[in-house]
């Protein structure tokens, strides 16, 4: 079953009398009015009586030895209440969501530009910033290691060494050689999450000696445990309350912002607030891994892949963070959604003195997609085949085997996706439309000439995994309560823009026939629900809500079924009414409730996975999602400027739960990928973050967003997933940069082996 749409614009409800209801409807989020009116309470908007303001002193060097720290001048300043350094950390001095290797405050060595040294609390934000600047730190500047290839032979930058992880994947016969061989070297830049709202938070001390943290957390229970360990407290004395998250395309919050807040609140006994500047945000949080990739593809005379060899090197920056998980994804998906009988992949993640890298949507998979799709274009050119045709000869399907040895058991309609975008009508050429209706790559006032414009069409196929991998214990808990026709959902799943509260409402509406559904704010007094990434809340937390709602449904229907001598399976709830299969029973949910309160708590835990072994083999992933994108670009081959005319996408979504929400997520993912392809690259010469602001870091705006056509949404349900739905927003991010690069290659005749694409790489080759 599939659904098609000409554009990404969702269809409006048919009649005002039939408001959206249940799964499959475009239910509007309840927080939309507050967000559009500017009254939604984000962390930066919080206030408390007796509030103090925090500021953090950060290292100006990417690598240095600290010889002394003097806080005396800062403490003398009027209005300063406290200054904390590494000496004031009562608990664990290092933290990390995955590897505890990152100090709260640098003590002996600074390992990256912007690393926290000290934090100040004062009665005014300007006073706090001046006091932080007054902390005197003496450094012995050291030579930074910024080239990940040099990290292997460099002196250890960390007690744990420079190598974070090495994965040698071995699959098939290493002696096999194809009739046609192509090679390539590729570089992927450092993309920043660039959240709309910079990091902010409020810490409030409690009478029991604990502390409450009000932050835009995407994983509140992990943040609570990290904070408790840092403060030397038990977890029950630290509470994390999730405030409004102003969009997240990664684990957007950095514990390095949060942990000093609690320390200052505990030391002063006062509420302390920190609102990061945009520069601090760029310096503090993790970025996408810059990656170096070397590839060799072997194919037979008909263009069928025989063997893929690759070396993948991820720059993890100063600390490990999510590098291990990102490397596992990169190595596992290094061949893409293609059948490859023999694969030999070497993957490394290393520490450098560059800013830390971490989880950013599509981590690992995005980098290798750009490389393997460039290789497919090279093969097509060498074999004189159409790029789409070469891909169709090699695409993966359900039942095929990944190079990790794992069988693809989920729906994998890759060929259908590719054919859909290939056959979709191309946009008209500029000569076929009025001149005022089309743009030069440089814009309406661009310096280029129409005669220098070349149009290119390129294809890309991408894949991502869903949920955690390699043995991650994915579990979520939810409670559903119903009384007087009103349902309440209690679940610590954080809404980072994916719309979980809306989904929870739809699930309860569909299961219980209750229109009014409230979702309680998330905090750590609730059972854990895990991080908001890899679409896990749609699957795991949504599954927990569904199970709890079904348990309440059974409680509701059992008395009626017993009264009429039938099983609950013979009763159905539709539009707030309970009816039996034979029409004998017909009543409303409100009448059946009869003033009672019904509630149930349930968990959802997907089937387990396993770590990759010493040869990169193992069933490491719960499920996979796929997409195909066709990009159309116009390139000024004299100036090297590029305009993305259209991106047509077909995606494997499992099931459409909310059409409007799904379309928005796909559009956003595609646009984020376009940024990675053309403009987004946080430059760090010699380890120093250059232009850490939204002027120097070129995010695509609404004016840069291309025409996005959602050609097809394949709804082949994944039977192991609740509702059958798949990940929605990561796979467009993974696929669109490769598609844009392929289209630029087609327009210019140049290899385009670096992202983002530089203007000089878009100037036409001499014979193009």
Describe the fold and architecture.
Helix content is 24%, strand content 26%. With 768 residues, it is an alpha+beta fold. The strands form 7 sheets. It has a 7-stranded mixed sheet. Helix 4 crosses helix 5 (255-268). It is globular and about 75 Å long.
Concise overview:
The protein is α+β, with helices and mostly antiparallel strands and 768 residues long. Helix content is 24%, strand content 26%. Helix 4 crosses helix 5, helix 11 (500-512) runs parallel beside helix 12 and helix 14 crosses helix 15 (730-748).
> How many H/I helices?
15
| Helix fraction by DSSP (H/I, runs of at least 4) | 10-25%
Task: Report the portion of residues in β strands.
Answer: 25-35%
> How is the largest sheet built, in terms of strand order?
4-8-2-15-12-13-14
